[in-house]
Write a structure and sequence with these properties.
Rossmann fold, seven-stranded mixed sheet, 7 strands, 35% helix, binds guanosine-5'-triphosphate, binds magnesium ion, magnesium
């Protein structure tokens, strides 16, 4: 995917504020500070369009980013951050649950995990929850640059086994630092969101025109 345009659209708290143009949506879930916003920035080649921070809990609403007028990335608040109050966590939980269950334009959830560690309890809960509701999942294990290449496969195995991943769910190893996995993830997103249709059709229509 060649990104020519990327813009922040809205920080939404509920359905009233979701965009109404019906473009496909790809949501990003994962524990706080795992690297969700950084992943978006690397995907669109922008340093800081999605706000990142070394302080966890920076993303507080459903942040919509429109890419090439073709799709949205929806950045979620991170889970599992101890300093967030219980009440706040319940509010976020409801907001996210509602979005995931009701949003018709949602095509897939990227479950962002940290390749360095086995999945957390919250990662496992999130994966099982998405699976239960039959929402398409792609597990993205980020921060690969923090592990020597020789140990990647061992960590991939640890992650897949820890989550009890189904073979049918896709898995991408990623790094927002080096760009590892970016092309693979774009290819997958484009296919799920039905975006490469036009490109594939191109040669045929050119032929017809001749
Ligand atoms: N080395 C390395 N650091 C990363 C990577 N991805 C994110 N980081 C760092 O991890 C920290 C958190 O990144 P964010 O993208 O803000 O994380 P987030 O998941 O959006 O966090 P919340 O919005 O709090 O949920 C920042 O200091 C990033 O620079 C990566 O692939 N490699
Ligand atoms: Mg964030």
């Amino acid at each position: 995917m060649k990104v020519t345009q990327a813009e922040f659209v809205i920080s939404a708290v509920g359905p009233d504020q979701y965009p109404e143009d019906a473009l496909p949506e790809i949501a990003l879930a994962g524990r706080s500070n795992v690297g969700k916003s950084s992943l978006i920035n690397r995907m669109i080649n922008r340093k800081n369009l999605a706000r990142t921070s070394s302080t966890p809990g920076k993303t507080q609403h459903l942040n919509y980013y429109r890419i090439n007028e073709e799709l949205y990335f929806v950045d979620f608040p991170g889970y599992g951050y101890a300093k967030v109050s219980k009440t706040q966590r319940q509010v976020w939980g409801k907001m996210i649950e509602r979005y995931l269950l009701e949003r018709e334009t949602l095509k897939m959830v990227l479950l962002i995990v940290d390749l360095r560690h086995p999945p957390s309890k919250d990662d496992e809960l999130m994966y099982d929850w998405l699976k239960h509701y039959e929402i398409p999942i792609c597990v993205v294990a980020t921060k690969a640059d923090k592990i020597p290449k020789s140990r990647w496969q061992k960590h991939v195995k640890q992650m897949k086994e820890g989550l009890l991943m189904r073979k049918t769910d896709s898995f991408v190893m990623y790094s927002s630092e080096t760009g590892v996995g970016k092309d693979e993830l774009w290819a997958h997103i484009e296919s799920i969101a039905g975006l490469n249709q036009e490109e594939n059709d191109q040669p045929e229509s050119e032929q017809t025109a001749e």
